[in-house]
Amino acid sequence: MVDLSAYKNPPLMAIGDSLYQGVRSITIRKDMMALSTPRLVAEALGLADSFTYPDGERAILTDMERWLRMLTDGGLTAIGADYAANFSYWSSAPVSPSGCLAFDNVAIAAAQLQDLWQATPATAEAELAALLPNFTGNLLEDFEALSGDLATVVIRAFNTRFTLNPMADPDLASMSQFDWARERAPKRLLVNAGSNNGLYQMCFNADPNQRMFFGPDDSYIDEFAAQLESLPDAVEHIYVCNLALPRTVTNLMPIAPDEPWPKSDYIHEYVQPGPDAYFDLYENRFGFGYGRITGAEMKILDDDVDAANAKIRSKIRSLPKNRARVRFINTKRMMLNYDIKHLGEEAGRMVRVRNPLWYCGKIKLGTKMIDTSRGYRGGGMMSLDGMHPTTVGYGVMARQVVRAIEAKEGIDVAEIDNQHNFDRDTLLQDVPGLWTLAMWLYRNFRRSVEAPDQDRMKLLKICSRPQ
Questions:
Q1: Using CA atoms, how far apart are residues 396 and 408, in angstroms rounded to an integer?
Q2: What is the distance between the alpha carbons of residues 270 and 467, in angstroms, rounded to a whole number?
Q3: Residues sharing a CB contact under 8 Å with residue 337, sequence separation 6 or more, in sequence order
Q4: Contacts of residue 179, Cβ cutoff 8 Å, sequence gap at least 6
Q5: Please, what's the b/e burial string for 179-196 (b: 16 or more CB within 10 A of its CB; e: otherwise)?
Q6: Among 415, 393, 416, which Cα is nearest to 334's?
Q7: Would you state the pLDDT for residue 376?
Q8: Residue 104 and residue 50: Cα distance in Å, rounded?
């Protein structure tokens, strides 16, 4: 058996999904993981140099921000070559360049709650054996698979195989995220999971019929609580995030029912929330398909996620060891406070930073889609996909974790610096100039294909309208 004695009892570990792995603009890349919420917490605790995270040398298949920039520098040929290189690298089952046997951040993008104890390098290997024949490494030939469920499974499998066994040691092939937490017994464990059990699908697909699903009779919630309870006593503190409400997710932007081409992304210029604080109609501004959600349907989705939060909290707190060492991070409340989509920029919280490239003085970053039109970049807390934060957004999440650590452990932790996070975010410092135009054209194309028949001709005209 491999000797893991040098990896015992780290001061901090993290498990979970994409929001803890550090995904940005539906891209999984080493430099993004270096700016994830757990890594920013590690920095505040003075652990930045020792806190390890997956260090694969290429993005896991897709690289959205890089490819957008390539459109004007090499075009589709360059993008295709980059995708082929990514595919070749991850198909080869690479090992960690650093020789690390175990990472401190083992959160895995697209992981569902049950994957925290069920998904292992061995299960990932089996998935890859079954699904890789559907991929060729040629972007044009793989395009359909990349926009479907196959891509999610393959990307997650590549990610799982490497993140949970970075040196491809056969003795570690059965290790899950929870297995690593038990084996290493960190002093602090950060946990963020559950979004992929329904919330992500609600918001990325704008699916009003989606509901949170945690197994028959919510058995995954029961097991999640039991897994936390089973961690060794050396795990002194556990910090668990709850789920944000769909209404606060940036990708779900309001539209006027009778006007499919809004004046701008500054929504209060053309449409206001109703007396129930919901807009009449929402759409997924970015996604592989097109969907709409009414305000009444959004309320139902919010209530469904709220009920899931209550079940998870209640089940975790029903166990004695969990009551003593688990503290909850209120991501739901944080996102409601920053929900300028519904509150407006005056009432909602925004992050203020300086950037002389934009204009003199302070600029405000909020939870709208990034907008590069009219010489001003709106949004900024969320990345291009509207689902995952920028470094600034991850920093806001990290602040919530740091405050919980201070309250629970009675220690002082360094402040998370929004300006520093803004300055080192390569997306915010260099937003692809084509982004806003590409986003609207892509949105309109999806509408023309999938909107109701009575809208189709009108939408096709809009797609051809000069931008």
A1: 19
A2: 19
A3: 348, 349
A4: 117, 120
A5: bbbbebbbebbbbbbbbb
A6: 393
A7: 52
A8: 9
pLDDT of residue 441: 87
Residues 296 and 303: their CA atoms lie apart, in Å, by 11
Other Cβ atoms less than 10 A from the Cβ of 18: the count is 24
Instruction: Supply 274's token pair.
Output: 């109703």
- Which ranges in 24-134 belong to alpha helices (H)? 30-33, 37-44, 64-70, 75-91, 115-118, 121-131
Long-range Cβ contacts of 311-315 (<8 Å, 24+ apart): 311/214, 311/218, 311/221, 312/194, 312/221, 312/224, 312/225, 312/240, 312/242, 313/242, 315/218, 315/221, 315/222, 315/224, 315/225
In angstroms, the CA 462 to CA 274 distance is 27
DSSP code of residue 233? T
Q: Are 220 and 214 in contact (CB under 8 A)?
A: yes
Rg of the chain over Cα atoms, rounded to whole angstroms, equals 22
The answer, yes or no, to whether residue 334 has pLDDT greater than 90, is: yes
DSSP 248: G
Helix axes 453-463, 435-450, angle to 10 degrees: 150
Of 289 and 453, the one with more pLDDT: 289
Angle formed at CA 59 by CA 10 and CA 91, multiple of 5 degrees:
95
Nearest to 110 by CA among 57, 50, 42, 61: 61
Q: How far is CA 119 from the centre of its chain?
A: 19
Judge contact between 336 and 243, C-beta under 8 A.
Answer: no
Residue given tokens 């003795």 in the structure block: 171
CA distance 329 to 400: 7
Token representation of residue 277: 């604080």
